[in-house]
């Protein structure tokens, strides 16, 4: 019997480990990643001519980064590796991909969707000014090309990445004016027992925070952002804490409220989704092997639910082993049992992180009505609220049709979390009840075929 065609989307920790497990069982794999080099978000590699060392780029995680980079380099000649290639659609058991302006169809028998995560953003008045970046975007500038987003940067939002990126900036010599966390210190204290499931992770988090404080960076909890000012670019940020308003001068802001799984391809593949209360996100359902509700379509890593890089590696391998067994290779039950135990432990840590840095769902209904909600279509919060009331909107796709929120270039990747919270508040429903935006191809902007007029 001919070997099946196995496609893996994503060459981050999950995709690389899935590929490795499949290759070890001598199964042919096609690996597709829009990035030019493997490593994913956390272990993103710089362009060839850039010389910052792995320890400067990845800090405590440098060895893990090196191990993954070596693995994908070693595998590259044995597999069909397609870097700089976007998978922009899944339909009828084939992918549509785009590389160097050329589209191609990739039929598959098995598909591993390991597409990772993106920043979860909430609007703040002034957040569309030049100089405001997502936290992940700020980190990409530093990790990829050794650039800072500004001379005097404030990091605002919540989540472990907030402290990590601020630390990385300050360590690299950038001036970090402040780290402002919307969550209260009490939330973090309450989460300590769950966070202690991973003492090394907890120690790193405490270290970043202590280091920032010891190096003169203002670190505050329980902050309410009020407005980002600027004329042609960021110049000030005003926030409130314990009833006191403070204005900081700055020329750049890194903004982020945790991460959001990149689930559009799983949606287009027809996978069933469930609402995850802990992270307030819709996620593809999967069984213990990582298989979705569509036979042969597997999800692994942050694209199936935010779990962090270590969990992504484990899930990747787990899925690779499961597909190998489906293809007639012996099922490695010992290794699978070990992975499952490690994943169960990491799930406790994840619970702790969600408790320490909960998504501030109430935020969006407390901000000024003239704040932009959907930046692609320039739709303001007040206009969206009015439309919800006038048209009696109770569901996300109806909201999109009526307001155009989520209809622009990003297809709701940036605004849908905030839009869902706004709709839930305005229609007095639980956020799970308002549903989610259906994914539409292309999942990211692609050029239209164009020929010049004669
Ligand atoms: C910007 C950003 C920075 C982060 N930095 C850190 C950090 O410093 N430390 C930390 O602990 N965690 C960080 N995280 C979280 C971390 O990325 C994950 O926990 C971990 O990398 C998950 O691994 P993964 O393999 O699931 O996904 P990823 O590492 O995100 O890999 C997914 C891969 O899929 C590719 N991809 C996605 N969609 C497509 C598509 N449609 N077509 C083709 N390719 C596609 C991407 O290019 C990427 O290489 C970050 C997350 C983001 C979004």
What is this structure, in a nutshell?
The chain is α/β, with parallel strands linked by helices and 454 residues long. It is built from 13 helices and 22 strands.
User: The CATH topology of the largest domain, please?
Assistant: FAD/NAD(P)-binding domain
Count of beta strands: 22
State the domain count: 3
Low-confidence stretches: none
CATH top level of the largest domain is Alpha Beta
Helix segment tally: 13
Q: Could you say what the CATH architecture of the largest domain is?
A: 3-Layer(bba) Sandwich
Radius of gyration: 22 Å
What's the pLDDT, averaged over the residues? 95
- CATH superfamily of the largest domain, by name, is FAD/NAD(P)-binding domain
State the helical fraction. 25-40%
- Assembly state here? single chain
The biggest sheet amounts to: 5 strands, parallel
Major beta sheet, strand line-up:
3-2-1-7-20
Shape descriptor reads: globular
Q: Could you characterize the architecture of this molecule?
A:
The protein is of the alpha/beta class. Helix content is 35%, strand content 23%. The protein has 3 domains: 183 residues, FAD/NAD(P)-binding domain (3-Layer(bba) Sandwich), CATH 3.50.50; 137 residues, FAD/NAD(P)-binding domain; 72 residues, Arc Repressor Mutant, subunit A (Orthogonal Bundle). It has 13 helices and 22 strands. The strands form 7 sheets. It has a 5-stranded parallel sheet with strand order 3-2-1-7-20, covered by helices on one side. The chain has a 5-stranded parallel sheet with strand order 9-16-10-11-12. α1 runs parallel beside α9, α6 packs antiparallel against α10 and α9 packs antiparallel against α10. The radius of gyration is 22 Å and the shape is globular. The structure holds flavin-adenine dinucleotide. The site of flavin-adenine dinucleotide (FAD) has 37 residues, from α1, β4, β8, α4 and α5.
């Amino acid at each position: 019997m001919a070997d099946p065609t196995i496609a893996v989307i994503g060459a981050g920790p999950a995709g690389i480990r899935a590929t490795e497990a499949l290759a070890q069982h001598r199964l042919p794999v096609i690996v597709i990643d829009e990035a030019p080099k493997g490593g994913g978000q956390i272990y993103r590699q710089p362009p060839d001519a850039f010389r910052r060392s792995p320890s400067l780029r990845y800090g405590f995680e440098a060895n893990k980064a090196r191990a993954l980079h070596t693995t994908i380099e070693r595998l590259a000649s044995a597999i069909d590796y397609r870097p700089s290639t976007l998978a922009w659609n899944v339909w009828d058991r084939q992918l549509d991909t785009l590389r160097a302006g050329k589209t191609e169809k990739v039929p598959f028998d098995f598909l591993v969707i390991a597409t990772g995560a993106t920043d979860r953003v909430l609007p703040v008045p002034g957040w569309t000014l030049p100089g405001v970046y997502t936290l992940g975007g700020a980190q990409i500038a530093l990790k990829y090309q050794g650039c800072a987003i500004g001379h005097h940067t404030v990091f605002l939002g919540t989540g472990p990445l907030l402290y990590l990126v601020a630390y990385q900036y300050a360590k690299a010599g950038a001036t970090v004016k402040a780290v402002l966390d919307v969550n209260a210190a009490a939330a973090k204290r309450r989460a300590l027992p769950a966070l202690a499931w991973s003492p090394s992770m907890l120690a790193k988090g405490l270290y970043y925070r202590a280091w920032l404080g010891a190096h003169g960076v203002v670190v505050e909890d329980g902050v309410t952002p009020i407005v980002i000012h600027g004329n042609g670019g960021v110049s000030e940020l005003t926030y409130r804490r314990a009833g006191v308003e403070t204005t900081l001068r700055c020329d750049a802001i890194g903004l982020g409220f945790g991460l959001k799984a990149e689930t559009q391809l799983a949606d287009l593949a027809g996978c069933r989704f469930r609402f995850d209360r802990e992270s307030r996100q819709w996620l593809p359902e999967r069984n213990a092997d990582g298989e979705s509700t569509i036979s042969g379509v597997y999800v692994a890593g942050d694209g199936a639910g935010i779990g962090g890089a270590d969990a992504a590696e484990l899930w990747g391998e787990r899925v690779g082993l499961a597909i190998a067994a489906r293809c007639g290779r012996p099922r490695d039950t010992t290794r699978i049992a070990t992975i499952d135990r490690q994943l169960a432990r990491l799930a406790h840590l994840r619970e702790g992180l969600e408790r320490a840095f909960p998504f501030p769902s109430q935020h969006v209904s407390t901000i000024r009505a003239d704040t932009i909600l959907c930046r692609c279509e320039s739709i303001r919060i007040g206009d969206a609220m009015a439309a919800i009331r006038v048209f009696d909107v109770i569901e996300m796709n109806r909201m999109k049709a009526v307001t155009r929120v989520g209809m622009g270039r990003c297809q709701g990747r940036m605004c849908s979390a905030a839009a869902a919270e706004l709709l839930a508040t305005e229609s007095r429903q639980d956020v799970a009840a308002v549903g989610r935006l259906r994914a539409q191809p292309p999942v990211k902007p692609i050029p239209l075929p164009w020929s010049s007029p004669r």
